Amino acid sequence: MRPEPGGCCCRRPARANGCVANGEVRNGYVRSSSAAAAAAAAAAAAGQIHHVTENGGLYKRPFNEAFEETPMLVAVLTYVGYGVLTLFGYLRDFLRHWRIEKCHHATEREEQKDFVSLYQDFENFYTRNLYMRIRDNWNRPICSVPGAKVDIMERQSHDYNWSFKYTGNIIKGVINMGSYNYLGFARNTGSCQEAAARILEEYGAGVCSTRQEIGNLDKHEELEKLVARFLGVEAAMTYGMGFATNSMNIPALVGKGCLILSDELNHASLVLGARLSGATIRIFKHNNMQSLEKLLKDAIVYGQPRTRRPWKKILILVEGIYSMEGSIVRLPEVIALKKKYKAYLYLDEAHSIGALGPTGRGVVDYFGLNPEDVDVMMGTFTKSFGASGGYIGGKKELIDYLRTHSHSAVYATSLSPPVVEQIITSMKCIMGQDGTSLGKECVQQLAENTRYFRRRLKEMGFIIYGNEDSPVVPLMLYMPAKIGAFGREMLKRNIGVVVVGFPATPIIESRARFCLSAAHTKEILDTALKEIDEVGDLLQLKYSRHRLVPLLDRPFDETTYEETED
Amino acid sequence: MATAAEQWVLVEMVQALYEAPAYHLILEGILILWIIRLLFSKTYKLQERSDLTIKEKEELIEEWQPEPLVSPVSKDHPALNYNIVSGPPSHNIVVNGKECVNFASFNFLGLLDNPRVKAAALASLKKYGVGTCGPRGFYGTFDVHLDLEERLAKFMKTEEAIIYSYGFSTIASAIPAYSKRGDIVFVDRAACFAIQKGLQASRSDIKLFKHNDVADLERLLKEQEIEDQKNPRKARVTRRFIVVEGLYMNTGTICPLPELVKLKYKYKARIFLEESLSFGVLGEHGRGVTEHYGISIDDIDLISANMENALASIGGFCCGRSFVIDHQRLSGQGYCFSASLPPLLAAAAIEALNIMEENPGIFAVLKKKCQQIHRALQGISGLKVVGESFSPAFHLQLEESTGSREKDVKLLQEIVNQCMSRSIALTQARYLEKEEKCLPPPSIRVVVTVEQTEEELERAASTIKEVAQAVLL
């Protein structure tokens, strides 16, 4: 059933088929190069007909993004797996209820037993009976720099993961495929660390005030000027936490009577910000431009529900790289739609800033677009810059408005000075302002690592989601039992990976996720790949039949979109 | 007989026809034709009108003009031009190029430029670098985080503590982790903005009670009890929470915790306590408002505080029983979905806790200083002091408003500016006027720290007095 890994004949149609994702004629967005290959592939995949026209299009580079269909048998087995787990869950709840099985979880105080229960029982069923079995795969404590290799504190559980004991041993030199250290700036030596240390000694760790009161340091101003220059926008503002950058600024931009069009896979912080804003939220299918265009069209034509007034403004929320899918936003198309329908665009570059584009300026740079076409450029410093916090960049009016109206500027403590300095030095390094070409090399190294790693995994026969240029690489596991098994087997082989299941993914699409880094050397990657290959055989994870389904061919149901009005 | 009469009528009709004028006949003829036309014409369809053609849709799309993304901000907006602090924001602060004594940063214990705290942070920086590059779940948990959580739990004498990487997000994430749609939250009107956002995210029913008014709270609880009796099935699944602050950020007053605890057991509502101002300030050991009143910490379901004030680091924490706190590790949005706290900031917080534990006398010193300036600021004509005498952050409000908020703000800003030029750094308490549920009146917030000497406190008080008199009279 599974094709032999590595065969060149398997690979070619796969790549070409991925290209077809652009070959959608209605909007005329088409990849210019290798159109012939795409056409050939379209012909090969007899079931799907794609019209490919060569008209230059909006994409300046190939856009290869694919999501292989879940094999039917695997899907059925996955559901059976969850069924068995649920049945056993009920059985064990029954046993716990009658005190046959020992209860490990914390309980309510005796004095408050007659209060309304703090949790709904079904809420915890999943945690108690499914998550608890494989809990050791998350929150693994580390005790070193989260660089290419990391030291993990060994822990044991004697009560089936209800509690952990630290053995005191340290698992040294675990290959780190989990941290978002895209450009390798998570380091405890070098110029960034030295600069941060200097500022720490001068300024101290905290700020003890908000930006609007007395917590606006000269360092903050310096950082904001640099960020604006880095992004190629008029002005920028920075905040103390990436999550809060979204949740505390979206409400400042839109409100009642406005419409938010949000990708279905947007991060929790965007969803929270959208909800707090009081605007109406409509969800479009992940990265699906037909779905987005339909929502845009309907919104303008039909106006607000019930009152029938036109919307005050429409804000599209998208991410640069989606952290669970490894997909890259179809930014050229989004921008074309946004212009056509006069909507505003909010682009969250949490994962893509630094990690994409020939100069590391994120997804706008990757597609060779003009940053001015994006109304709100948001991103975080947590990932590529090895620091913490977030920013928003855009026109000067926008930033002036946020300086006066952002929740964060008024009520939240500003960025810690040493963290600011880390961002400044790492950003200057990427821009080449430190007088070296180190930053540029990092960006190139990451792009190379990404392509290499993704190609090798595909050759091995795994189902890999996402764009071939995305440093976030999801490897599909599907079955719940394999989540735990994969995480543990990899750690046994000294590789730290992230595994995710429901509710972070759809119920049957459990996956492992690798995050590549410029700090990974070829040897490290080869070691990791060798082990993944072995574990893949051991756990029978090589599901791929090399029949890639382009994103647009994922089922698209026109009638299903949620509407939330608060 | 009958037929004869009928015939006669017919004859009469024919006769009338002859006698009628021609125009009359023509008119009637036209009318008859009109009726026939109406009867046979196509029926009128409602449906036809509402379906838009593609062209019409395009026109509508063409026609629609959105509002600008943001409205322009005038150049002299009071919040647009920030003060610029050069160098560290510690006891002596350089604001807009002028060296001042800091009466504005929440650096209550003076730990911001404490060499021990800096050394601890530096050691951590050299070991771990700056960022964590991941959320707690995915290799973002460092041993320092576990240490800090353990230390905080031990310090507060609770079972467990959980840390967040941002002070604001702590309570704003904690509330919606427990309180869901349909639950009821009783909250003080003066509650800070983070609480308001947490409540909004929870989508629960919110009942506001008058600031620190236990009777008003009890009235609401009673009302709810009556409501519950009407619908006991719903009441069995409706959680009730009371959300209060220890020392209120917006008023500087303390919450009447003993009475609230009584109400808690009487009406079976859980208490969430926000202690950002009172943690590391109140009580013999700085454990906050529970220690201040001598209340067992177990009576409070959840305590949240930030580490950005007394601890002079960044981030926040929640503590309480494991039964309550552990839930946030999967349900606290700001915990799960955000990168974890940079280890150097966690290390700074640990060292700050060490210092607090080693010098419990520091809290009495702070209290004494608060009382000193509080006393010295009484009796300024035109300004009133709002807040407890032991609160290290309290407000100076205008005794009488000029009638417009804008003018009040300008007056107070003038006082702040003049104090600043006389080397006393102060700031107004800033609010988003349109977003606040119950907007507090404009005020200058005075912050007391242990580093301020008696002379400095006296000088600050007399400066404020003089300036206020000059500006307000």
From TrEMBL, chain A:
Subunit architecture: Component of the serine palmitoyltransferase (SPT) complex, which is composed of SPTLC1, SPTLC2 or SPTLC3 and SPTSSA or SPTSSB. The heterodimer consisting of SPTLC1 and SPTLC2/SPTLC3 forms the catalytic core of the enzyme, while SPTSSA or SPTSSB subunits determine substrate specificity. SPT also interacts with ORMDL proteins, especially ORMDL3, which negatively regulate SPT activity in the presence of ceramides. Forms dimers of heterodimers with SPTLC1.
Family: Belongs to the class-II pyridoxal-phosphate-dependent aminotransferase family.
Protein name (record): Serine palmitoyltransferase 2
CDD domains to which the protein is assigned, alphabetical: KBL_like
Residue span, Aminotransferase class I/classII large domain: 173-532
Keywords on record: Acyltransferase, Endoplasmic reticulum, Lipid metabolism, Membrane, Pyridoxal phosphate, Sphingolipid metabolism, Transferase, Transmembrane, Transmembrane helix
Pfam families the record matches: Aminotran_1_2
Membrane topology: Single-pass membrane protein
GO biological process: adipose tissue development; ceramide biosynthetic process; positive regulation of lipophagy; sphinganine biosynthetic process; sphingomyelin biosynthetic process; sphingosine biosynthetic process
Gene Ontology MF, one: serine C-palmitoyltransferase activity
Highest taxon of the lineage: Eukaryota
Functional description taken from the UniProt entry: Component of the serine palmitoyltransferase multisubunit enzyme (SPT) that catalyzes the initial and rate-limiting step in sphingolipid biosynthesis by condensing L-serine and activated acyl-CoA (most commonly palmitoyl-CoA) to form long-chain bases. The SPT complex is composed of SPTLC1, SPTLC2 or SPTLC3 and SPTSSA or SPTSSB. Within this complex, the heterodimer consisting of SPTLC1 and SPTLC2/SPTLC3 forms the catalytic core. The composition of the serine palmitoyltransferase (SPT) complex determines the substrate preference.
From TrEMBL, chain B:
Annotated Aminotransferase class I/classII large domain residues: 99-464
Enzyme class, UniProt record, top EC level: transferase
Transmembrane intervals: 20-40, 161-179
Gene Ontology MF terms: pyridoxal phosphate binding; serine C-palmitoyltransferase activity
Pathway this chain belongs to: Lipid metabolism; sphingolipid metabolism; Sphingolipid metabolism
EC number: 2.3.1.50
Keyword annotations from UniProtKB, A to Z: Acyltransferase, Lipid metabolism, Membrane, Pyridoxal phosphate, Sphingolipid metabolism, Transferase, Transmembrane, Transmembrane helix
Superkingdom of source: Eukaryota
Catalytic activity: dodecanoyl-CoA + L-serine + H(+) = 3-oxotetradecasphinganine + CO2 + CoA; octadecanoyl-CoA + L-serine + H(+) = 3-oxoeicosasphinganine + CO2 + CoA; tetradecanoyl-CoA + L-serine + H(+) = 3-oxohexadecasphinganine + CO2 + CoA; L-serine + hexadecanoyl-CoA + H(+) = 3-oxosphinganine + CO2 + CoA
Purpose: Component of the serine palmitoyltransferase multisubunit enzyme (SPT) that catalyzes the initial and rate-limiting step in sphingolipid biosynthesis by condensing L-serine and activated acyl-CoA (most commonly palmitoyl-CoA) to form long-chain bases. The SPT complex is also composed of SPTLC2 or SPTLC3 and SPTSSA or SPTSSB. Within this complex, the heterodimer with SPTLC2 or SPTLC3 forms the catalytic core. The composition of the serine palmitoyltransferase (SPT) complex determines the substrate preference.
Name by which UniProt lists this protein: Serine palmitoyltransferase 1
